């Protein structure tokens, strides 16, 4: 179980660091051109805020594991990713982008698994 948690936590953290960085440092038009058609529905500032939340959450999934303490941050980060993915699922369903919604359900389940495993109580 510990190895599974380590792998899922690492993959999820790395994924969100990469995707958050991409969205944060690219223009809205580049995000749309790279397949992020959902960005049509959002202002550039909101896209940057979502990207910053993804990047910070990804970092907070990885850092406590590397440092060996601060595991409550892992719970908070995984819960934030779960919230982000829930919103993303609704956006993709509203836009009838079912393949993207299914992928986000997988990420949501990964985040819930990490949050449940890292819960501080």
What are the defining features of this structure?
0% strand, globular
Notes on the structure:
It is a single chain. The chain has 121 residues and is mostly helical. The protein has one domain. It contains five helices and no strands. It has helices spanning 2-25, 28-33, 44-67, 71-94, 98-117. The protein starts with a helix and ends with a helix.
Topology summary:
Elements: H1 2-25, H2 28-33, H3 44-67, H4 71-94, H5 98-117
Number of strands: 0
Q: Determine the structural class based on helices, strands and strand pairing.
A: mainly alpha
What is the terminal-to-terminal distance?
Answer: 18 Å
In the residues, how many domains can be counted? 1
**How would a crystallographer describe the biggest sheet?**
none
By DSSP (H or I, 4+ residues per run), the number of helices equals 5
Beta fraction: under 5%
Order of helices and strands: HHHHH
* Rg for CA atoms: 14 Å
Shape: globular
A few lines on this structure:
This protein is mainly alpha-helical and 121 residues long. The chain has helices at residues 2-25, 28-33, 44-67, 71-94, 98-117.
């Amino acid at each position: 179980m510990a190895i599974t948690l380590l792998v899922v936590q690492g993959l999820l953290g790395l994924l969100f660091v990469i995707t958050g960085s991409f969205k944060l440092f690219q223009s809205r038009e580049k995000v749309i051109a790279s397949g992020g058609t959902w960005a049509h529905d959002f202002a550039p500032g909101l896209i940057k805020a979502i990207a910053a939340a993804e990047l910070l959450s990804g970092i907070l999934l990885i850092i406590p594991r590397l440092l060996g303490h601060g595991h409550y941050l892992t719970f908070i980060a995984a819960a934030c990713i779960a919230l982000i993915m829930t919103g993303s699922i609704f956006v993709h369903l509203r836009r009838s982008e079912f393949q993207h919604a299914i992928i986000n359900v997988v990420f949501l389940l990964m985040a819930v698994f990490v949050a449940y495993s890292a819960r501080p109580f």
